[in-house]
From TrEMBL:
Chief subcellular location: cytoplasm
Compartments it resides in: Cytoplasm; Nucleus
Keyword Cytoplasm part of the UniProt annotation: yes
Annotated Gene Ontology cellular component terms: cytoplasm; nucleus
Keywords per UniProt: Cytoplasm, Nucleus
InterPro entries (UniProt xref): MBS1/2-like, SERF-like_N, ZNF706/At2g23090_sf
Protein name: 4F5 domain-containing protein
Domain Small EDRK-rich factor-like N-terminal: 16-55
Residues annotated as signal peptide: none
Protein source organism: Anopheles stephensi (Indo-Pakistan malaria mosquito)
Entry-linked Pfam families: SERF-like_N
Length: 92
């Protein structure tokens, strides 16, 4: 009778197995989040590279350097309204 009580009832085993699966899925989720974080970190450095690359925008008239085409277009429209807008800015 006592030895029978020491054996865990079947429902306990099932609960343990489910608990283990839960831990595994939590670990997987953490790994996934870590990977995502890494990917986002890469994306950020790529964006920074792109931003640095974009600094080569320079005004065709006064050679001022512009961080992005929108700023360049605004600059061009404000400072050189009599000049034709460069083709690269027409669809900005
Ligand atoms: Zn200019």
């Amino acid at each position: 009778m006592f030895s029978k009580l020491r054996l865990p009832p079947p429902y306990t085993l099932g609960a343990m197995a489910r608990g283990h699966q839960k831990i595994q899925s939590q670990q997987k989720a953490q790994e996934k989040a870590a990977k995502l974080k890494k990917q986002q970190g890469h994306g950020l450095s790529d964006q920074m590279k792109a931003a640095q690359k974009a600094l080569v925008f320079s005004c065709a008239v006064c050679k001022s350097q512009m961080p992005d085409p929108k700023t360049y277009k605004q600059h061009f429209e404000n400072k050189h309204p009599k000049n034709d807008l460069p083709a690269e800015l027409k669809d900005v």
